[in-house]
Amino acid sequence: MLNNQNTQKTERRYDLDWLRVLAFFILILFHSGMAFVDFPWHINNAETSQGMTMVWGFLHSWRMPLLFVISGAGIWYAFRKRNAFQFMKERSIRLLIPLIFGILVIVPPQIYLERLTQGVNFSSYIDFYPHFFEGYYFSEEGGNFSPHHLWFIGSLFIYCLAILPIILFMKSDLGLKLQGKIDQLMAHKNAIYLIFIPFYIAQVFIGGDMLLNAPSALLMILGFILVGSKTLWPSVEKNRYTSLMLGGILTALSYWMLLTPDYIFAPWQKELVTVPSILYILFAILGFGRHHLNFNNAFLKYSNEGVYAFYILHQTITVFLVYHLVSMEMNMWFKFALATVGTVTFTLAIYHFMIRPYNLVRPFFGLRQLKSKQSALQSKPLTSVDVNV
């Protein structure tokens, strides 16, 4: 199937572009509100909201899984025009350069401001910077060195390496036969809901941490298979209302289980509810996206190119704004609004005026070079082939 479609023009998947853009804008909203929920974050406001905490917990359950699925879909498109070496070369350029630059330049101000709120004194940011390389932030001993929000880029690169043999297998004759079997199985009306089984096994028996875990790798494989399947994605679209209903019911049940004493339900029992609840919410999002978002406009063209740079930039701006806002005497919700609007405004301004027009800067934010005599306003937007993050 993959070999046959290499020679054919594939339908442009604007719905994937939309979901990618919307997922990252939700991420900006999410981080702008982290100082005002009960979760520990880099800088926390004295007043928090329990209701907001519950909403943020729900967003957290599926926002990154959605991006892993979309990234897996992007791998399918990438392999239509590249072999394995070309694929990893392209991923190295688009992922490792922004990751290294981001860790050395974008992340340190976040650590600096966090340490200032904790009472650690530095004469200046220049005085702090050498201390950024002392210890690992997430270790038991603590430290300053960290990828912070850019962990996702590092994870993507490692997952690309890890699942590359599986992708190459799926392109082989045996892999194509297996894809055919999957298509036959997924042709059944409710077969997509059995997909939670391998995810449950991966979550309970393999697991992992934030940076590397088996369920996230499976989500990328799922995205790869989804785009290439003749029946799986149509089934996801057709069952979108059922997925929304099941995901909503299971999510409510998972919240109830969280409120019960730990001795009532074992972790493996809770995961029997949590894993499918997240997966079915993803199916609903993908299904509604496929049904309603398969169109293009000027906003999508602009945002689809810039969303990677938005992601790299935004959290440092958020932390800077929150650092100043938490000490002010004003309503918590007004602080949240200022943090959100400020993050979007400053991120957009820096991207549009300082990154987008200049070839010297673009690679550090995952953007391709502008061709000669091509202005930023005429730059070709990223397509579904380019879904990296």
State which percent range the strand residues make up.
under 5%
How many β-strands, per DSSP? 0
Largest sheet: none
Order of helices and strands: HHHHHHHHHHHHHHH
For the terminal residues, how far apart are their CA atoms? 25 Å
**pLDDT under 50 segments (min length 5)?**
1-9, 381-388
Alpha-carbon Rg, integer: 22 Å
- How much helix is in the residues? 55-70%
Oligomer designation? single chain
Average pLDDT confidence is 90
Note the overall shape. Answer: globular
How would you portray this structure in words?
This protein is mainly alpha-helical and 389 residues long. The chain has one domain (2-107, 147-386). The chain has 15 helices and no strands. α3 (50-78) crosses α10. The radius of gyration is 22 Å and the shape is globular. The model is unreliable at 1-9 and 381-388 (pLDDT under 50).
Labels describing this entry:
0% strand; globular; mainly alpha; 389 residues; disordered N terminus
In short:
Helices cover 66% and strands 0% of the residues. By secondary structure, the protein is mainly alpha-helical.
How is the topology of this model organized?
Elements: H1 2-6, H2 14-33, H3 50-78, H4 84-106, H5 108-117, H6 125-128, H7 151-171, H8 173-186, H9 196-206, H10 214-228, H11 232-238, H12 240-259, H13 267-292, H14 298-325, H15 332-355
Helix pairs in contact: 2-3, 2-13, 2-14, 2-15, 3-10, 3-13, 4-7, 5-14, 7-8, 7-10, 9-10, 9-13, 11-13, 12-13, 14-15
